[in-house]
Write a structure and sequence with these properties.
Villin_headpiece_dom_sf, actin capping, Severin, about 900 residues, ADF-H/Gelsolin-like_dom_sf, 10-stranded mixed β-sheet
Length: about 900
């Protein structure tokens, strides 16, 4: 019986445990299962921006006036829904959407957030995703390693403060303890609160703000750039405004001992000057080292739960193509430390969709990647541009491209059928960017060929004729409507020598100097010519393969501009017998390239020009060629000066076959150039990382993202623009010469290294560059505040404060005349509860001598002799502040 009783007790205990466990699980599920009321408050078919914080395992609306402030001990969910009418940001007002919504959900994890809160943030993100239809892009954000998209939402930057909610941390909003912030970043700074105020946390390359409420110090390292100094000063102004009082003191590294007596004393109180030892900025790991690079060795993994267990199988190593992704599956795109993407097909299981982020984090752990590796989940049909650009080919059937922000070589061929002059294109830069032309090609041009490390002038009649083993420099001058603008092209033949290529680049820059650095510089590689380059030769560009030995009998003499003169008229050895394959339908995209002079080179889908050396040029038109292609070929034939004979495929006479060397089989199918799709332009900061400029993308860019002391890279897909800020410096500008090549080399979509590169200087931007920006203001940089202007503004503010203090001093001199009150009457937080005659900022004046001595432990006269900061500290301690 005792044994049965024991078993009964055990069963009862087990049953209790089972019920308790079930109830606990049910309680947790009740928190997580049904749609959170907070989510139901989101407006439908509208744009919005909302932040929630996790508090006691629930999501709580974060105050809008604190958007941009995050606490290290907390977890947050940030959701933004935008259309194409405005740039998404934390200040946007909710309005009815125009077109489809682009929705992104970010869950941000503070460095000291609890595991439970992080778990709730992740789970609630999935719940929110389901509530919004399962189409949003999900992002996991880790403090200190936030994505550029996340940072772009906060135009004034973000501030990361110590503390948190009830999870064991304490906010510091009302404390009087001095705080120190590290300010990093230019247009959108990251202001991070440091553990304490100490020289040991500082370095000479950054800006630090010490907030003591009554005084805010801005300490600028000697190697800090002026834009970050500006942001440090702006941060100090924000802190002063939040406190409603205080003085701002700007301290330059090495000038601490030259401060005025009160400021120097207070700074020494916070940061003892005799202990000053700061780190060298070169020894810091720096933001540049933490920023992600493109990863060329990209991999694709297939995820499947067909047997009830997640399996991850490697599919391929890049380059990746859109057709690699199947709708019934989900995939992980592994770009290593540059980020992990999870793609979920429309027909994938619900489990694969809801557990995608968790699976990605498990993948990161298994791979040994840093915990801060960025993770994003995308749904088929809703892929952002950052994901698409990892693929060599991507087509958006349901989402037509927006004008101005995109570029496609094929679009040019289809839409440009007329001439546009420079004033028209300058007034419509979006069209100029789409077409990649700046005028109709009727400006003035000079053409030079590299010869014996010099430039030899090419005669006008030979303009547009190139040899594949040569290099050329072309100067093009056109009237933009307000002034003359200049473009210096240098064209590199695919068979040219390394010396000739180097000389062409060097001489092009020398010519730019001849124009006082006012030109746009463009590097072109054979086969990758820009539409405008072909336009300036009226669609009659010819590339000969024949090895040209130079100029017949001509001597080369260099003039003062480094340009050689040919004394025998510059007669080139152009071949008499040749076969040219003509590609193109307009003057913007047409060129003729020499191919082997044999019938086997013909193709039914193209048009060819044949010169047999007898003064006749045959225009052979394949039966699958178009009328526009035939017209452009005839235009080139007319320019040869020979008699033109039209030949249609299947109608050839024997003279044609004799000229080409006899009949041979050839291809009957039209060769279609691969269309890699229309791509949106992307902007990148280029940061110096140990002698190499590394890219960091700017999401949803506009003109204000172009920073004057940097080199920026605009990737227009078919061209790369390098924008040189006026304060970038010569060393940074030199590094930029290799930046585009490094960028293309590292691009995981396997870009062509011959992609045109265009150097653009600040203030000289052509319309085919400015057209990629939503709006462009030529006066923009003149209106920006400078570090010096902010300093002057702070000094004026401090002088105003000083005048107020002097007025208060006059008032204090009449202390004996004011009415006196007890300490209890003055020790109130609400100024409205004070006697009407009391000045809230100077409560100590209303204590009699005995009461003052008791409260402050000193006479009023001794108190008056103290520095202001010490008086304020004493007032705070006794409760009269």
């Amino acid at each position: 019986f005792g044994r049965v009783r024991c078993i009964g007790r055990g069963l009862f205990a087990f049953l209790c445990l089972f019920i308790w466990t079930r109830l606990r699980k049910q309680d947790y599920k009740s928190i997580m299962s049904s749609v959170d009321p907070m989510f139901k408050s989101l407006p439908k078919n509208s744009t919005f921006f909302t932040i929630w914080r996790i508090e006691k395992m629930q999501i709580v609306q974060f105050p809008k006036d604190q958007y941009g402030t995050f606490y290290t001990g907390d977890s947050y969910i940030v959701v933004v829904a935008s259309d194409n009418t405005e740039k998404p940001n934390c200040f946007m007002k909710s309005k009815k959407a125009v077109g489809a919504l682009d929705i992104h959900i970010h869950f941000w994890l503070g460095a000291q957030t609890s595991q439970d809160e992080a778990g709730v943030a992740a789970y609630k993100t999935v719940e929110l995703d389901d509530h919004l239809g399962g189409s949003p892009v999900q992002h996991r954000e880790v403090q200190g390693f936030e994505s550029q998209r996340f940072l772009s939402y906060f135009p004034r930057g973000i501030r990361i403060q110590n503390g948190g909610v009830v999870s064991g941390f304490k906010h510091v909003e009302d404390t009087t303890t001095p705080r120190m912030f590290h300010v990093k970043g230019k247009r959108r700074p990251i202001v991070k609160e440091l553990p304490h105020v100490s020289w040991s946390l500082m370095n000479d390359g950054d800006v630090f703000v010490i907030d003591a409420r009554t005084v805010v110090f801005v300490w600028c390292g000697r190697h800090a750039n002026h834009v970050e100094k500006l942001q440090g000063a702006v941060t100090a102004q924000q802190l002063k405004a939040e406190h409603g009082e205080g003085t701002i003191v700007i301290v330059e590294d090495g000038q601490e001992k030259h401060l005025g007596s009160p400021e120097k004393e207070y700074l020494n109180h916070l940061l003892p000057l005799e202990d000053k030892v700061v780190k060298n900025h070169r020894d810091m790991s720096g933001d540049e080292l933490a920023e992600k690079q493109h990863c060329a060795d990209i991999k694709l993994y297939r995820c499947s739960d067909e047997v009830g267990t997640l399996r991850v199988t490697e599919v391929k190593t890049g380059p990746l193509e859109q057709k690699d992704l199947l709708s019934q599956d989900s995939y992980i795109v592994d770009n290593a430390e540059a980020g992990i993407w999870v793609w979920v097909g429309k027909k994938a299981s619900h489990k694969e969709r809801t557990e995608a982020m968790r699976n990605a984090q498990g993948f990161i752990k298994k791979k040994g990647y840093p915990h801060c590796t960025q993770v994003a989940r995308v749904i088929e049909g809703g892929e952002p541009m950052g994901f698409k650009c990892l693929f060599r080919v991507w087509h958006d059937a349901e989402h037509p491209a927006l004008p101005g922000k995109t570029h496609s070589a094929h679009k040019i061929a289809k839409t440009v059928q007329t001439k546009f002059d420079a004033p028209t294109l300058h007034s419509n830069p979006a069209l100029s960017a789409q077409m990649q032309v700046v005028d109709d090609g009727t400006g003035k041009r000079e053409v030079f060929r590299v010869r014996n490390l010099n430039l030899v002038s090419v005669e006008l009649r030979d303009h547009g004729k190139f040899f594949s083993n040569g290099c050329y420099v072309i100067v093009y001058i056109y009237d933009s409507g307000t002034k003359e603008d200049c473009i210096v092209y240098y064209w590199l033949g695919q068979n040219a020598s390394t010396d000739d290529k180097r000389t062409a680049a060097l001489k092009a820059r020398e010519l730019d100097d001849r124009f006082n650095g006012q030109s746009v510089l463009v590097r072109l590689v054979q086969g990758k010519e820009t539409p405008h380059f072909m336009t300036i030769f009226s669609g009659q560009m010819i590339v000969f393969e024949a090895a040209d030995e130079g100029i017949n009998g001509g001597s080369v003499v260099t003039n003062g501009n480094g340009v050689a003169a040919d004394h025998n008229g510059g007669v080139h050895n152009f071949p008499r017998v040749y076969l040219l394959r003509v590609h193109g339908t307009t003057q913007h995209n047409t060129k003729a390239v020499q191919v082997p002079c044999t019938a086997a080179s013909l193709n039914s889908g193209d048009v060819f020009l044949l010169s047999g050396g007898g003064g006749v040029v045959y225009v052979w038109a394949g039966r699958k060629s178009t009328g526009d292609e035939r017209e452009m070929a005839k235009k080139i034939a007319t320019g040869s000066g020979m008699e033109m004979v039209l030949v249609s495929e299947g109608q050839e006479k024997q003279e044609f076959w004799n000229a080409i060397g006899g009949r041979l089989d050839y291809t009957n199918e039209k060769q279609i150039q691969e269309d890699t799709g229309t791509r949106a332009a992307r902007l990148f900061h280029l940061r110096d990382r140990v002698g190499r400029l590394a890219p960091r993308e700017v999401v949803d860019f506009n003109q204000c993202d172009l920073v004057e002391d940097e080199v920026m890279l605009l990737d227009a897909w078919h061209s790369i623009f390098l924008w040189i800020g006026k304060d970038a410096g010569k060393e940074l500008a030199k590094l930029a010469n290799h930046a585009a090549e490094d960028y293309l080399q590292d691009d995981p979509s396997c870009r062509d290294l011959g992609t045109p590169v265009i150097w653009v200087k600040q203030g000289l931007e052509p319309p085919n560059f400015t057209g990629f920006f939503t709006s462009w203001d030529n006066e923009f940089w003149k209106t920006l505040p400078t570090y010096e202007s902010i300093k002057n503004e702070i000094e004026d503010s401090n002088q105003t404060l000083l005048a107020m203090q002097q007025q208060a001093a006059l008032y204090r001199n009449s202390r004996s005349e004011v009415e006196k009150f007890t300490f209890d009457a003055l020790n109130v937080k609400n100024p409205d509860q004070l006697p009407t005659c009391v000045d809230p900022a100077n409560k100590e004046l209303y204590l009699n001598d005995e009461e003052f001595l008791r409260i402050f432990s000193m006479a009023y006269e001794e108190f008056e002799g103290l520095p202001k900061w010490k008086k304020l500290d004493l007032k705070k301690k006794v409760g009269l502040f």
